[in-house]
User: What shape does this take?
Amino acid sequence: MSATLRIAALSAWHVHAEEYAREAQNHPETELVAVWDDDAERGKALAETVGVEFVGDLDELLAREDLDGVTITTATTVHREVIGKVIAAGKHVFTEKLLAPTLAECDELLEAARAAGVQVTVSLPRLAHGYTVALREVLDGGSLGRLSYSRVRLAHNGSTADWLPPRFYDPAEAIGGAFSDLAAHPSYLTQLILGTDVTVASATYTDMTGRGVEDNAVVTVTSPDGAIGVVETGFVTPFSPFSIEVQGTTGTLTYGLGADGAMVLDTGDGPTVIEVPADIPNPFAQWVQAIRTGEETTENLDRARALTELVVAANAAAAA
Assistant: This one.
């Protein structure tokens, strides 16, 4: 392993491809050295943007002894094939969510990675944000009592403002629409609040812009203790703030609601504003640390697996 980890960006399919390539350029212990894409024109454009070479042959790139790891921003449908190749080549993997289209493929990839000594981390960035740090502290403190309800909303206007690329509406490549992509964030936050063992109770998907996949979605889940969680997302809302609401038998916590969007706790004595701390190291930084230490990002992988299970169940419920 080189002193500076040498990273390649695999595919510009996803809208976060440049963002993760920049992560490799900006982290003090990593260097971006190449871009690959099965669409040469698309890949060359990203390579030119970030100022590195384009390599058109994936096998050739992965055979390089001076390559330590890759960022994966391909279509989710080819994760098993591409990530499988990367693991077989002994390179570390930082990947956009979902890790794989099915739970079986998730388990297959993680088993292969552990056998090969490869570190895998999935981009679940909102778990590192300061509001999630504060949320965890409130949940761990028990002031909300027995949890009864949660609602997490994240939406944007990617469809109505037409800034998402057409491939995001290809159900074969994208594994669906807004829920399989953007809803990953409110989904894993809902699982943080209510537990990874929640069960999908219902899924309502609509296609407001007529592109053939859902661009507006609400999924409800239930916990073994009887709590209800609501996950809201969409590509058709221009001014919808990210928000969290948690209700318990002795208190309420909200974030992103109201004029100031502050985190507010009310346990019966009136609302109290909770200070939101700084972000903790993000998933990319956690991945670099895992490569250095050889200790996998266990919570990240557990939550990535649970996220896949929830999305698969929600898509099945909507189809039914």
In short: The radius of gyration is 20 Å. The mean pLDDT is 96.
